Amino acid sequence: MNENAPNTTGVQTLIRGLTVIDAVMNGCHDLKSIGAYTGTARSTTHRLASALVEQRYLRYLPEQGYVLGSKLIELGAKALDSTSLYARAQPVLQRLAHYTQDTVHLGICEGEEVLYLIKINSQRGLEMRSRPGHRMPLPLTGIGKALLLDRGEAQWEELFCKCTDAIKLEDFMSKMRRYATGGYAFDLEENEPTIRCVAAPVYDASHAIVAAISVASTSTYMSYERMEELVPYVKACASEISTELGWTEHAPA
């Protein structure tokens, strides 16, 4: 027997197990919905879910059904700790949060969405729906707009029209042109009522935008005048992280 030959059955079982985790992550909490998501029979679904519970990748709660387990939290924390961007951004974001007393985020682009990696809660006791692992369409958030600043106008328009009312397109495009020139972006309650934010892009050594940061608060604490005052500081923090990633002011030849 060739020891290097792939174990097809083992690989298939592994993929099915990972798909079960994906199903639970996407809101399937009972065997019927998990089986429908994975395309497996009830007995197979139960066997896979039970094994994942035993290994702490899932938990079973009588009142909720299957939920993600503590092992995934451990793996997620280790994955973040090993990410250069996360490690280098964290102290800068802590300082930004202390200075502003507002909620601070770091996010990256995944497809047509922003994926939040870091959230430091406001010292004002305000709650926002964002959280690490949360996703939102790029054009609907300040941090998402900042991630789009090095894209062309055709892509701005395409992404905007996919996720919201095209009647607001001209206003969006006008703001994006201004943001691209200034190197920052605002969220003026377009995503969540009363929530405003100031965002700026993070660049790598090739001068590509690889992430963005933002400071967010309610309109009570985030007047338009204060947003404009925060722009230089948020941009400076983004530049500090960019420098850690190899960015310089002069574009590479």
Structure in words:
The chain is of the alpha+beta class and 253 residues long. The strands form two sheets. The protein has a six-stranded antiparallel beta sheet with strand order 5-4-3-8-7-6. Strands 1-2 form a two-stranded antiparallel ribbon. Mean pLDDT is 89; it is low at 1-5. A hairpin with a 5-residue loop joins strand 7 (195-203) and strand 8 (209-218). The protein folds into two domains: 8-74, Arc Repressor Mutant, subunit A, CATH 1.10.10; 83-244, GAF domain (Beta-Lactamase), CATH 3.30.450. The chain has helices at 8-25, 31-38, 42-54, 70-81, 84-100, 142-147, 153-163, 169-182, 224-244; strands spanning 58-61, 65-68, 103-110, 113-120, 135-137, 185-188, 195-203, 209-218. Helix 5 (84-100) runs antiparallel to helix 9. It starts with 7 loop residues before the first helix and ends in a 9-residue tail after the last helix. The protein is elongated and about 60 Å long. Helix content is 47%, strand content 20%. The longest helix has 21 residues, at 224-244.
Structural class: alpha+beta
Name the shape in a single word: elongated
| Main sheet strand line-up | 5-4-3-8-7-6
Query: What order do the SSEs take from the amino end to the carboxyl end, as H and E?
Result: HHHEEHHEEEHHHEEEH
Instruction: Please state the oligomeric state of the protein chains shown.
Output: single chain
β-strand percent reads 15-25%
CATH topology of the largest domain: Beta-Lactamase
Count the DSSP helices.
Answer: 9
Q: Mind summarizing the main beta sheet?
A: 6 strands, antiparallel
The separation of the N and C termini measures 54 Å
Protein name: HTH-type transcriptional repressor AllR
Pfam families: HTH_IclR, IclR_C
Organism: Buttiauxella warmboldiae
GO molecular function: DNA binding; DNA-binding transcription factor activity
